[in-house]
């Protein structure tokens, strides 16, 4: 008898198979028991008919508890009533590990309770579907950058300097000196681009930002490409192509997960159409002021402003060329205006906010050194970074995409805490 995973059921219709699974839920009557089975690949129904199995098997099915683990043997059949489309008619049921008083029952539970039991909440069908979408985005990311001729570079997690705001760094000791958990791999990726042309990183980043919004995590994952001989316009083309590729990959490979999440697939398909609209920061300020937002030039946008701007378009939208004063030291000034820089944020539709931040990098040695001094940064900590402008400097650009924000948007999930297996929030480091 062949041992299979639930996700493979369509290939074994009419065959007798063996599956290792957990009991997600069950219901039974005097003559039939329905077991909601999950094995990590998918969920489907096991049907146990009293007249077709031994009394021992039927009593086991009738009395088995939620999240007990089992070996199931039976015949795969089509099930047109379910979204999954298949079920197993059970002949044999063997308990592997009994589950007693499983805390997450089919009733409603509060968010804090579910977060305290995140290690168990991950087993639910919705959380399972979100993790499938996350996995597909990760898989598609590697596929996209490999196709585009990028080389993966792994920047360090422990660093001696900041890429952006030093107040958002987690401090630690590195033997006899200070060190910090990385808030971005970007500076190191620039070195990689000078060596390999087009590179990307994919790793954890940390922000000691005391924020409780539905868009923020303390620890999250970033995809950070960096490209030599590319200006900001070149970078924008890569960004929109990449995001459309991710959405299409999820549509192609996570159909059932999107059904579980009740995600509007027709809406997602709109996001695969290129190009994405673009609006300058100046135009965004004008748009907001005309619609009763109290925002003055030089201020950054918050969630309400980003959501309103996104609502004016039916696809992700780039906001271009923010004021120099509110952006990091490494961004290149606009060629005709010193008060703005060559940068862009990509704002996702449906109120999900910024998913990408990117810019053309300052490639002039003297100008970058002045910026470091203006930001009151220790220039000696950045000598290696300045070297990139001393030895064959070229125009180069890059960006960072937040994995969890992208998962939240594509999956249609309300809060970013569900887009990562074990979220680290302002007041949560358990479990």
From TrEMBL:
**Location of the Aminoacyl-transfer RNA synthetases class-II family profile domain:** 133-431
* GO molecular-function terms, A-Z: asparagine-tRNA ligase activity; ATP binding; catalytic activity, acting on a protein; nucleic acid binding; transferase activity
Q: Which UniProt keywords apply?
A: Aminoacyl-tRNA synthetase, ATP-binding, Cytoplasm, Ligase, Nucleotide-binding, Protein biosynthesis
> Pfam family of this protein, just one?
tRNA_anti-codon
Cellular location(s): Cytoplasm
Q: Which InterPro entries match?
A: Aa-tRNA-synt_II, aa-tRNA-synth_II, aa-tRNA-synth_II/BPL/LPL, Asn-tRNA-ligase, Asp/Asn-tRNA-synth_IIb, NA-bd_OB-fold, NA-bd_OB_tRNA
Q: Which reaction does it catalyse?
A: tRNA(Asn) + L-asparagine + ATP = L-asparaginyl-tRNA(Asn) + AMP + diphosphate + H(+)
Which Gene3D superfamilies does UniProt cross-reference here?
Answer: Bira Bifunctional Protein, Domain 2 (3.30.930.10), Nucleic acid-binding proteins (2.40.50.140)
Enzyme Commission designation:
6.1.1.22
Q: How does it assemble?
A: Homodimer.
UniProt similarity note? Belongs to the class-II aminoacyl-tRNA synthetase family.
Protein name, as recorded: Asparagine--tRNA ligase
Q: What is the lineage of its organism?
A: Bacteria, Bacillati, Bacillota, Bacilli, Lactobacillales
């Amino acid at each position: 008898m062949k041992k299979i995973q639930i996700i493979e059921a369509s290939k074994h219709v009419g065959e007798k198979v063996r599956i290792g699974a957990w009991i997600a839920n069950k219901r039974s009557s005097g003559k039939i028991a329905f077991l909601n089975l999950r094995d990590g690949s998918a969920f489907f129904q096991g049907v146990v008919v009293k007249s077709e199995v031994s009394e021992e098997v039927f009593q086991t099915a009738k009395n088995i508890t939620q999240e007990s683990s089992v070996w199931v043997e039976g015949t795969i059949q089509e099930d047109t009533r379910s979204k999954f489309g298949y079920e197993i008619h059970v002949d044999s049921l063997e308990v592997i590990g009994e589950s007693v008083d499983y805390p997450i029952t089919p009733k409603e539970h509060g968010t804090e309770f579910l977060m305290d039991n995140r290690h168990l909440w991950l087993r639910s069908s919705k959380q399972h579907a979100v993790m499938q979408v996350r996995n597909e985005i990760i898989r598609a990311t590697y596929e996209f950058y490999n196709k585009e001729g990028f080389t993966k570079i792994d920047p360090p997690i422990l660093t001696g300097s900041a890429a952006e705001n030093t107040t958002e760094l987690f401090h630690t000791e590195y033997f006899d000196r200070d060190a910090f958990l990385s808030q971005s791999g970007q500076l190191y990726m620039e070195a990689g681009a000078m060596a390999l042309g087009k590179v990307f990183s994919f790793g954890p980043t940390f922000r000691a930002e005391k924020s409780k919004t539905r868009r923020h995590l303390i620890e999250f994952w970033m995809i950070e490409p960096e490209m030599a001989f590319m200006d900001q316009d070149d970078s924008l083309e890569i960004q929109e192509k990449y995001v459309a590729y991710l959405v299409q990959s999820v549509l192609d490979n996570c159909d059932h997960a999107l059904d579980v999440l009740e995600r509007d697939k027709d809406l997602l398909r709109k996001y695969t159409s290129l190009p994405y609209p673009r609006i300058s920061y100046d135009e965004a300020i004008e748009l907001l002021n005309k619609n009763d937002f109290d925002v003055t030039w030089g201020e950054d946008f918050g969630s309400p402003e980003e959501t309103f701007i996104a609502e004016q378009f039916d696809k992700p939208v780039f906001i271009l060329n923010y004021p120099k004063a509110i952006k990091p030291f490494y961004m290149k000034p606009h060629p005709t205006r010193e008060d703005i820089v060559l940068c862009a944020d990509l704002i996702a539709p449906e109120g999900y906010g910024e998913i990408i931040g990117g810019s053309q990098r300052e490639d002039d040695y003297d100008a970058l050194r002045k910026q470091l001094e203006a930001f009151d940064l220790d220039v000696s900590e950045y000598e290696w970074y300045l070297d990139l402008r001393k030895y064959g400097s070229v125009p180069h650009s890059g960006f960072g995409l937040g994995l969890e924000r992208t998962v939240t948007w594509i999956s249609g999930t309300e809060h970013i805490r569900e887009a990562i297996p074990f979220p680290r929030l302002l007041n949560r480091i358990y479990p």
